[in-house]
Amino acid sequence: MAVTEQEFARAEAASAAVRQHGYATAARYDRKADRLVVSLHTGIELTVPVHLLEGLAGADAAALSEIEITPSGLGLHWPALDADIYVPGLLSGEFGSRSWMAAELGAQGGRTRSAAKANAARNNGRKGGRPAKRQAIQS
User: Which domain of life is it from (predicted)?
Assistant: First the structure.
């Protein structure tokens, strides 16, 4: 697939627009705090617990310490883990793909204990609990 000069120029302009919001100039793994530390071109350092990042949770320190920054500064790559993080996503609070984040947030919500959740469970129990799953009828 050939890329035209116009398409290339549009892609460069789009990348430049995204870079204005922040791009990585350095990245490192802080072993003591078990956190990813990303230095941005603005002088800001972003620190994120590794267990919150898709593809990095549970990895060993040696693999986490080997980080490559893409030439644009918009991506971080861990070769030993074959994991990638999009820097603008980190800045907006996205720590993985939509499906991964939904599963993580759902699991966290399921572990949450509160008076409201306990009352909702009691009320649901009074109504007979969860309905049984229906089995598909095969013919």
Answer: Bacteria
